[in-house]
């Protein structure tokens, strides 16, 4: 059975890199918790109750102290959205007294409204409405500031206005979801002002986000410290501390245990409390100092990265932090817009995700496409250190200049490709970070659609192989794995010394050579086929003439041999030779006659069999490309028949 499981895990594994992440000792401690939970669940009921109560109370106490959340309760859940769903049920039960008996009917009198930020987690509000059975009209998305403050913080004044409008419309403001670190930019809402607003309108105040991890540090900014005034907040310690298979935790404050039980935040089943066991083991293994050190290390990586980026003139930070460095452990950067007037397509930085580990691409409404480095979500798992930041900066120093020259030469590549139309077609693919994509179109006429498609695929496949053999640093490929364009050649990034005109000329010349060679092969095949048929006819005719000359008796096996021994007959059947150069079928008589050696040249002397140089390896730089490409063109001229 274990062998079967092993095969199921690795059956689609093709490379060594496709294996699971390296799990250290602290990771093994977390995984051990799941095995222990299964064993503990078979204990007798009384012993199980005492043990699970101890585990749950210890873990809750440690988390509340660690993240400065006094007098809180904890709910442990696999889906990091599930805690908020349960909290919403708690608030509905608390605000609608008849909800337990009447159900959703009581919501018709006053429709509940849940408020969330436009910079919040995508799909979170829709998930809440789906799980709670609420219409989407119960979800209100609050825009972010556009004039004052951060572009990624909730507009408090506009929220106040929306709440008043909902109250006037007979609705019930139920809950506000604030961010301590938005998913994209890592910014923190004005939590203190939002909490005051919630108190004013008797709303539940829930906070989530990666910046909540900094509550464990010795020095915490006032913007983050305000989160401990919230009614509930969701933590993801597994991500922050690099612990695999550890649940998320929602800390909350509520005085009525019956409502918490009705909402599903607490359970009377002891086994349900065992979800806290992996975290209970991990917190003890790391200790308070170990936990704080991991979070502080992530914040230090952010500070170091921002300082090192100051020396990269081609890279700019997308979003400047509004608080000090410890409040938002996220770095967002993109291609500098000012570096070149022709280089304004920063979405091509997405290619960095294939080159660097620990970064990803995010889409921001105002800044566009940016690259995000969030050590708090990746450093503990990947083991990121200061040396890795230096390697990141060094890699950027290599990639960005190449990206700059590539984007500046894209328009030249497009124009040069159009110059070779209709044999070369420029394929538009904005997501491709390289120079561009082209397709060679065969110019033969009279082909049907199916034959033309086969010829197109054949020529472009062969052309790609020849381009990959060129002596150049340019990478030629078939493009993205899930790209929409087929039978295309994608040209990768190039340096500034590349001669785009010579590059396109080379592609077009090699394409023509492949197409002409294909036609030559087809013509030669037809000539050979006709020659074989003609040879068969002539040989059959010669055999008939031989029969007429020698007679029927000589064709008998035994009699013919004796007769030929007594009276030999000079055979008149002559061999045939096929001249590929001339495409003609000739007799072998001139070959074996010493007097006719100077007549027709033999096959070995024909131009078609002369030694030829294979296509060479060319350099596409402006200094040496012209002469080498011309030599290469002459080396692949087809044989003239």
From TrEMBL:
<dbReference type="InterPro" id="IPR015421">
    <property type="entry name" value="PyrdxlP-dep_Trfase_major"/>
</dbReference>
<dbReference type="Pfam" id="PF22937">
    <property type="entry name" value="PDXDC1-like_cen2"/>
</dbReference>
<dbReference type="Pfam" id="PF22930">
    <property type="entry name" value="PDXDC1-like_cen"/>
</dbReference>
<feature type="domain" description="PDXDC1/PDXD2 second">
    <location>
        <begin position="357"/>
        <end position="406"/>
    </location>
</feature>
<dbReference type="GO" id="GO:0019752">
    <property type="term" value="P:carboxylic acid metabolic process"/>
</dbReference>
<dbReference type="InterPro" id="IPR050477">
    <property type="entry name" value="GrpII_AminoAcid_Decarb"/>
</dbReference>
<dbReference type="InterPro" id="IPR055103">
    <property type="entry name" value="PDXDC1-like_2nd"/>
</dbReference>
<feature type="region of interest" description="Disordered">
    <location>
        <begin position="592"/>
        <end position="641"/>
    </location>
</feature>
<keyword id="KW-0663">Pyridoxal phosphate</keyword>
<keyword id="KW-0210">Decarboxylase</keyword>
<dbReference type="GO" id="GO:0030170">
    <property type="term" value="F:pyridoxal phosphate binding"/>
</dbReference>
<protein>
    <recommendedName>
        <fullName>Pyridoxal-dependent decarboxylase domain-containing protein 1</fullName>
    </recommendedName>
</protein>
<feature type="compositionally biased region" description="Polar residues">
    <location>
        <begin position="620"/>
        <end position="633"/>
    </location>
</feature>
<feature type="domain" description="PDXDC1-like third">
    <location>
        <begin position="417"/>
        <end position="519"/>
    </location>
</feature>
<dbReference type="InterPro" id="IPR015424">
    <property type="entry name" value="PyrdxlP-dep_Trfase"/>
</dbReference>
<dbReference type="InterPro" id="IPR055102">
    <property type="entry name" value="PDXDC1-like_3rd"/>
</dbReference>
<feature type="compositionally biased region" description="Polar residues">
    <location>
        <begin position="592"/>
        <end position="612"/>
    </location>
</feature>
<dbReference type="GO" id="GO:0016831">
    <property type="term" value="F:carboxy-lyase activity"/>
</dbReference>
<keyword id="KW-0456">Lyase</keyword>
<dbReference type="InterPro" id="IPR002129">
    <property type="entry name" value="PyrdxlP-dep_de-COase"/>
</dbReference>
<comment type="similarity">
    <text>Belongs to the group II decarboxylase family.</text>
</comment>
<dbReference type="Pfam" id="PF00282">
    <property type="entry name" value="Pyridoxal_deC"/>
</dbReference>
């Amino acid at each position: 059975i274990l062998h079967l499981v092993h095969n199921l895990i690795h059956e689609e594994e093709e490379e060594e890199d496709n294996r699971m992440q390296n799990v250290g000792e602290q990771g093994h401690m977390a995984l051990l918790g799941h095995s222990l939970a299964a064993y503990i669940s078979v204990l007798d009921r009384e012993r199980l109750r005492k043990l699970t109560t101890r585990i749950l109370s210890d873990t809750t106490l440690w988390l509340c102290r660690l993240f400065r959340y006094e007098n809180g309760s904890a709910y442990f859940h696999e889906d990091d959205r599930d805690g908020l769903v349960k909290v919403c049920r708690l608030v509905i039960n608390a605000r609608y007294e008849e909800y337990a008996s009447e159900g959703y009917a009581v919501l018709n009198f006053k429709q509940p409204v849940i408020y969330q930020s436009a910079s919040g987690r995508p799909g979170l509000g829709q998930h809440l409405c789906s799980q709670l059975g609420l219409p989407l009209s119960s979800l209100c998305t609050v825009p972010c500031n556009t004039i004052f403050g951060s572009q990624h913080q909730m507009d408090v004044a506009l929220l106040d206005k929306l709440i008043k409008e909902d109250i006037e419309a007979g609705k019930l403001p139920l809950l506000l979801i604030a961010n301590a670190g938005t998913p994209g930019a890592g910014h923190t809402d004005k939590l203190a002002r939002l909490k005051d607003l919630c108190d004013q309108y008797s709303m539940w105040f829930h906070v989530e986000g990666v910046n909540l991890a900094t509550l464990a540090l010795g020095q915490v900014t006032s913007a983050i410290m305000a989160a401990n005034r919230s009614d509930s907040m969701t933590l993801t310690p597994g991500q922050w501390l690099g612990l695999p298979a550890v649940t998320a935790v929602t800390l909350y404050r509520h005085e009525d245990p019956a409502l918490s039980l009705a909402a599903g935040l607490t359970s009377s089943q002891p086994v349900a409390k065992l979800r806290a066991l992996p975290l209970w083991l991990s917190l003890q293994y790391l200790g308070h100092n170990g936990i704080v050190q991991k979070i502080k290390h992530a914040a230090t990586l952010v500070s170091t990265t921002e300082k090192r980026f100051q020396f990269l003139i081609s890279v700019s930070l997308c979003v400047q932090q509004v608080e000090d460095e410890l409040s938002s452990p996220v770095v967002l950067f993109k291609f500098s817009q000012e570096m070149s007037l022709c280089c304004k397509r920063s979405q091509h930085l997405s290619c960095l995700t294939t080159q660097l580990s620990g970064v990803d691409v995010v889409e921001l409404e105002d800044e566009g496409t940016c690259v995000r480095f969030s050590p708090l979500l990746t450093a503990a798992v990947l083991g990121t250190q200061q040396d890795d930041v230096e390697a990141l900066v060094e890699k950027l120093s290599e990639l960005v200049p190449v990206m700059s020259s590539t984007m500046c030469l894209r328009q030249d590549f497009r124009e040069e490709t159009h110059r070779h139309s209709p044999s070369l077609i420029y394929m538009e693919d904005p997501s491709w970070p390289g120079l561009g994509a082209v397709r060679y179109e065969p110019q033969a006429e009279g082909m049907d659609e199916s034959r033309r498609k086969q010829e197109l695929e054949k020529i472009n496949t062969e052309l790609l192989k020849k381009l990959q053999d060129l002596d150049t640093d340019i990478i030629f490929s078939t493009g993205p794995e899930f790209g929409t364009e087929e039978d295309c050649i994608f040209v990768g990034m190039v340096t500034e010394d590349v001669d785009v005109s010579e590059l396109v000329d080379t592609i077009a010349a090699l394409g023509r050579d492949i197409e002409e060679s294909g036609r030559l092969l087809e013509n030669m095949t037809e000539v050979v086929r006709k020659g074989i048929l003609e040879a068969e006819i002539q040989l059959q005719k010669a055999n008939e003439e031989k029969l007429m000359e020698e007679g029927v008796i000589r064709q008998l096996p035994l009699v013919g041999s004796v007769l030929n021994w007594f009276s030999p007959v000079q055979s008149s059947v002559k061999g045939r030779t096929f001249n590929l150069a001339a495409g003609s079928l000739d007799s072998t008589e001139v070959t074996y006659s010493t007097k006719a050696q100077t007549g027709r040249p033999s096959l070995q002397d024909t131009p078609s069999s002369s030694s030829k140089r294979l296509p060479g390896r060319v350099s596409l730089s402006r200094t040496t490309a012209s002469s080498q490409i011309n030599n290469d063109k002459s080396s692949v001229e087809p044989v003239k028949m």
